[in-house]
Task: structure prediction
Amino acid sequence: MEIWLIILLLIGGLILFLAMGLPIAFAFFLINFIGAYIVMGGIDGVSQAVQQIFSSLTTFSIAPVPLFVLMGELLLHTGIAQTTLNVLDKFIGKIPGRLSLSVISGGALFSTLTGSTIANTAMLGEIMVPEMRHRGYKDAMILGPIVGVGGLAMLIPPSTLAIVYASLAQISVAKVLMGGALPGLMLALLYAAYVLLRCRLNPDIAPAYDISHISWSEKLNDLAKYLAPLIVIFLMVLGVIFLGIATPSEAAATGVIGAMILAAAYRRLNLEVLKQSLRGTLHITVMIFMIIAASKTYSAILAFSGATTELVGFVANMDVNRYLVLIGMMLIILILGTFMEQVSMMMITIPIYMPVINTLGFDPIWFAILMLLNLEMAMSTPPFGILLFVMKGSMPGDTKMINIIAAAFPFLICDLIVLIILIIFPKIVMLIPSIM
Result:
């Protein structure tokens, strides 16, 4: 069978199944079994595909996923997130757009603890939207910051999708996690700068309101009581990875223990919280593990068919600058983001992109961060950016999708600016991984 027919079957068939409304993992499993039967020799090929499914899940690199998810679920269901936002709001004071800045600072902090873009966005929407509407904030300063900063969990460690990406691409989980730290911080600062500038130019978009005076002793007391313990957990997780003391899996387990101790210290840890946290962790983990199993099998079939080698050879023989190829790959992600969610895009593109990146001589860790940022942008790209729908679900019924898209657009421009900077200055990404 011709290589290009195999590529058309595996990629075109997958897109067809997704368009028919099949769940992501089931669409991949179905095309995997069809592809294995055709490409790998009938029933024996299907048997090999089943073995690949099991072997893809018996790897130590994906062990941090359920642990990081559990850590985020514990912090969410114990109400620690709400308390943290209240403390941050006290420190921001009377700065223009203070609630939007609280969203950005709180979202950046929660990104270091939840690891989930959807959870981050939903949590911020649930907590902050009622208060911001009550204070007269316009949609541009409510919707935009929440959608923008919600996606930071894609980059700021410990990102669950960064772990999934590293596992699928078979590169260092620890270095991918740490490589996203500086770009994530850059994004948060750029978001905050945009909010400040927009509120200075148009104060009506985020009306000022009187707040009661809060003494520095009260602020410092809240800092020590609520923020400092979260920062300790953050350092427990990332510090031991950076120093090489522990693997990401061991660090994630440490983070779970820290979250449980913190919840118990606040007297918020009870049987109902544990049940909710474990239920949420089980739901998300099963979904992610099914996706990993399906994607790795898909990669194996592509490699067995010779399609991967053919694609790499085609790119290697192209007489164009390698950065043009890179930009083309980024544009494909943005186009896919208009009708597909990020996990599907990772599963389709990583098996094809990684051999090409290695052939072109790009650093795979650097490219991983570019991909994650690009995927974050795709999550806010209309018409099917998943964070747009998460935000819609957090708003009153009279909120139109076009308003959410318009509010999120300036933050997409911020993402694009950082993406261009990272392409021009790759050392920003590699600074922390290079000294680990």
Summary: The mean pLDDT is 80. Residues 137 and 204 are 8 Å apart (CA to CA).
